Request: fold
Amino acid sequence: MATFLTAEWRKLIFFNYAVPETLLLPFLPAHTVLDTWHNTHYISLVGFLFKDTLLKGWRVPFHRTFPEINLRFYVKRQMPDGTWRRGTVFIKEVVPKLAISLVANWIYKEHYETLPMRYEHKTDFISYGLKKANQWQELSVNFAPEPLIMQPESDMAFITEHYFGYNALHATKTIEYQVTHPSWTHFNVLGSALNFDFSSVYGSTFEVLSKTIPKSIILAEGSEISVLSRSIIE
Reply:
């Protein structure tokens, strides 16, 4: 399958929340089911840095390196041979680059929004922020800078190793695309801060997350990634 986009995803912060399936089911695309870890449904607020972005091998001026903040949950799709593809569904992705939003929403039916954003990287500190309704919303972590191996069959592996994306195209049609990358290393998170109005950014349905304590917080190093061309499941 042809490659649509290549880039690096770096220093990914995940604030992971355990939620009831009733919160997620209205957003579930056809032909997928909710994925769980130890019978728990998760939704994640994720901030990370897009680097060296190429669209079909082309550099888009002023659109190569930028932050993204998204809200996503976890699904899977059973194949005819009985195996499962594990993937993610995005409630919304926020970036500061309009061209990225236009292309992703048009071709992949994603839910990108373009807003002012900022990020800060230090040796042991990372933060990502977006500005909505004249207010800055931010997530950040302090961490030990020595990378650690991601253990298989761990909650961290579950959160970071979903290699397909799914978006509803129609009540009975779903867009599927593959994201390729190696298993990531991670860092020991020593502290975190979250100043985020989920209702303002993602709608009143997700206001409950503003009052919920994350079940886990992960900082992954990331890697080079490839987004392959889409297919339609009917």
